[in-house]
Amino acid sequence: MTKPSKGLMLMLEITDLTVGYSTTPIIERLTVALADGRLTGVIGANGAGKSTLLKTIVGLIPVRSGRILYHDRPIRENQRQIGYVAQHAAIDTTFPITVRETVLLGAYPRLGWGRQPSRQDRLDAEDALAAVELTDLGERPLTALSGGQRQRVYIARAILQDAPLVLLDEPFAGIDVHSEAVIMAILRQWRAAGKTVLVVHHDLNKVRQYFDDLLILAPGRGVIDHGQVNQVFTPANIAQAFSPDMESLFNAPETEVAQ
């Protein structure tokens, strides 16, 4: 099993995980461990199982074999401890709901059956909107927002949920530079608060800048490598995960984003 740095407490342990929609597995015998308080990127070519991994952790796809433990307990017993921000394409952006109502959905995982958000939940929702710089748009329909603004709304919902484990599936895809900087600042705040954050990411130029650890997957091969970014984000690993001509990436300058 790949392990995080010595001294870090394990939050999530995945052992011999096999998942697939049909007879051909998308993920086969994947083993990896994630530690508390780390920002981990997940990269790999299309079909490597990046989104499938997140959906399996959150319980949207059944496990064929293997196990997923959260603090040494089965993940199915701890689903309320997981925040999940899906891909844009997986979210119905036409549903008639306001920005504020969307953020308040983050309160429901910790509420009992039939209970409504409290006054404190509503105050916390306003704080979450302020954190993503959308205070003035609370009553606006979600459908009226830009892609970057909508993604910030989903981050605000995750802020309100306040889960210790947060999974994000390509949160920076197709959004504006300002929204990306705002979201990245929130991810760093979560890490500083001790949360474990797992992010499917597509922009390899920003891997070193954004993440503490990296999980590299390849179609049909599973885990190429996992560990600290400065140790595993190498030309050899990227060539295995994508193609040999990706080596030129390592000589490209990275885009500066506010820390």
TrEMBL record:
Signal peptide: none annotated. SMART domains: AAA. GO terms for molecular function: ATP binding; ATP hydrolysis activity. It holds the Pfam family ABC_tran. InterPro entries: AAA+_ATPase, ABC_transporter-like_ATP-bd, Metal_Ion_Import_ABC, P-loop_NTPase. Belongs to the ABC transporter superfamily. This is MntB. The lineage of its organism: Bacteria, Bacillati, Bacillota, Bacilli, Lactobacillales. The gene is mntB.
